[in-house]
Design a protein that fits this description.
There is one protein chain. By secondary structure, this protein is mostly helical. It has one domain. It is 70% helix and 2% strand. It is built from twelve helices and two strands. Strands 1-2 form a two-stranded antiparallel sheet. Helix 5 packs parallel to helix 10 and helix 10 packs antiparallel against helix 11. The protein is globular, with a radius of gyration of 23 Å. The relative contact order is 0.17.
């Protein structure tokens, strides 16, 4: 079995990994749709409400704008230009845009089909995690938060602290009490797009920065890309915008699409190398 696996091409291994993650997403969605995960998910949210409210919440709140699809489209175009610069075929840009569009479509469809009940009393605490005080601040303050200057964030209102503490201790019974509202956030689009772009960027750094003198920058850039891949979705969970189910589903989709793109990049590279060898052979014959 292992010997057969070794003979599978690298591109096909990446394709297999992509299909496995996609299958996991479908299985997870099927389980999630039955409602058996909602109680454990809300308990995790209550556990999150016990954390202190700090200026980091404001930074994550502002950074959420980076994960919206217009900015993700810009990052995708930049990543596509990098791929073209590295010698990949122009159709790679088409693959990136196609998969980004498909991810937006899956996000939109999922958020129409899979509501999650939020019990009474929990909504106020979840809103307190999102740094609501930043909305009334001037643009200069939001720019500072975008730069990560969390210690200059506006102070947390005492009422928000009380709301979070109260929501963390309430007892809810969804089978007896109607929910306060339904949250349409499955799957997390931020987790999809950030993991998609971050995983591809990490692989490009690993593949093209192999010179010994670039070892330290290579490691640093790979770590940065992985932080980007996982951090975008986690930040949304940390400030209460997304639940655990949204995060897991988003990661499964994003990394699945990223692995499929990597397989296409590997195939494109092989074809370019083969073309160059053919041209070199013909050139030698003519000489």
């Amino acid at each position: 079995m292992y010997a057969r696996f070794k003979h599978i091409s690298t591109a096909h291994k990446w394709f297999c990994a992509a299909f496995v993650l996609l299958a996991f997403f479908l299985i997870y969605t099927a389980i999630f749709s039955t409602g058996v995960l909602i109680n454990s998910t809300l308990q995790q949210e209550q556990w999150l409400l016990r954390r202190p409210l700090t200026g980091v919440d404001c930074v994550f709140h502002v950074w959420a704008k980076i994960g919206e699809w217009p900015f993700s489209l810009l990052l995708t175009l930049i990543l596509g230009m990098v791929c073209l610069r590295l010698g990949y075929k122009p159709r790679v840009l088409f693959y990136l845009l196609l998969l980004l569009s498909l991810s937006v479509g899956i996000e939109f469809l999922g958020k129409q089909l899979f509501p999650q009940p939020i019990p009474q009393g929990l909504d106020g605490g979840m809103s307190a995690l999102q740094c609501p005080q930043i909305d009334s601040q001037p643009t200069s303050m939001k720019v500072m938060m975008l730069m990560g200057v969390w210690w200059e964030a506006p102070p947390v209102p005492k009422q928000d602290v009380l709301d979070a503490q109260q929501a963390a201790t309430i007892h809810f019974h969804l089978d007896k009490e109607p929910p306060d509202y339904y949250d349409y956030s499955y799957p997390s689009g931020h987790a999809i797009r950030w993991s998609f772009l971050g995983a591809i960027a990490c692989w490009l750094v690993w593949r093209h920065m192999k010179h010994r003198s670039l070892r330290v920058p290579r490691i640093l850039l790979m770590v940065l890309a992985l932080v980007f891949a996982f951090g975008g979705g986690f930040a949304q969970f940390y400030v209460g915008v997304h639940l655990t189910n949204d995060l897991i589903a988003g990661y499964l989709i994003g990394f699945s699409f990223a692995f499929g793109t990597i397989a296409l990049l590997i195939q494109g590279t092989r074809r370019v190398k083969g073309t160059r060898r053919c041209l070199q052979y013909l050139k030698n014959r003519t000489l």
